[in-house]
Design goal:
The chain is of the alpha+beta class. The strands form two sheets. Strands 5-4-3-6-7 form a five-stranded mixed sheet. The protein has a two-stranded antiparallel sheet with strand order 1-2.
């Protein structure tokens, strides 16, 4: 592991986590929890398998990641963050917030994974009606599916589909992000191609009620590369 050779906490931190892909590995483990090597690689499109193995070894050596043997029927090695590694969560959150305005730039070749919506859900969504019974929204963003749950004042995200969800929202990842972040209202998002089925009340229950840094500048559907 290369070092900046500087007696500064920022430099020391970057000695450990400043290499390409390292913080994205941390992002995946924060989003997924303990997971298999193949799950990590799936969540990091573009990384070479030998480079992922190298980065995991470096993170283990730094005490940020550890291995555990999953019991049957999985019976495989799982990678998980240590307490020290999980302490990077505020760093990932801060980078995510800082990068929100950059999400206006969407290219056709940009990969997308459903778990990457976990940070926007945590940043922007609120259960505005905590006294109502629990509700859920199935999100289809491109070819990825996740479910957003609102229950007793808490909003959370789980991976996969749920045919019993109260509502289903379908659209491109940029349009979904614009909706979830408050850059587009529900009606405007529908005019730009977003599709909503089921309970609109369940969707409105969690959406931001004020604007934010993304604003209304998400590209119109016809302009998304």
């Amino acid at each position: 592991m290369r070092s900046y050779g500087q007696y500064c906490s920022v430099a020391k931190a970057l000695d450990v986590v400043g290499d390409r892909w390292t913080l994205l590995i941390v992002r995946e483990l924060l989003s997924r929890g303990p997971c298999r090597y193949t799950d990590l690689r799936s969540g990091l499109p573009g990384i070479a398998t030998n480079l992922l193995a190298d980065r995991l070894r470096e993170l283990e050596a730094a005490g940020l990641v550890e291995r555990e043997d999953a019991p049957p029927p999985i019976a495989t090695t799982l990678f998980r963050l240590t307490e020290r590694g999980a302490g990077l969560a505020p760093v990932i959150d801060a980078l995510g917030r800082w990068g929100v305005p950059l999400m206006r730039d969407h290219r056709a070749e940009d990969a997308f994974r459903g778990q990457w919506l976990r940070l926007p859900v945590r940043m922007f969504l609120t259960d505005h009606e905590p006294d109502r019974p629990a509700s859920s929204i199935q999100i289809h963003a491109g070819d990825q599916s996740v479910v957003i749950d609102a229950d007793a004042g808490r909003v959370s995200l789980r991976l996969g589909a749920d045919p019993d969800a109260d509502a289903t929202v379908t659209g491109s990842p940029p349009r979904i992000l614009a909706l979830l972040s408050g850059g587009l209202g529900l009606a405007d998002a529908e005019e730009q191609g977003l599709r909503v089925a089921g309970s609109r009340e369940a969707v409105l229950r969690v959406l931001p009620r004020t604007g934010n840094a993304i604003g209304d500048s998400a590209p119109a559907e016809g302009n998304v590369s």
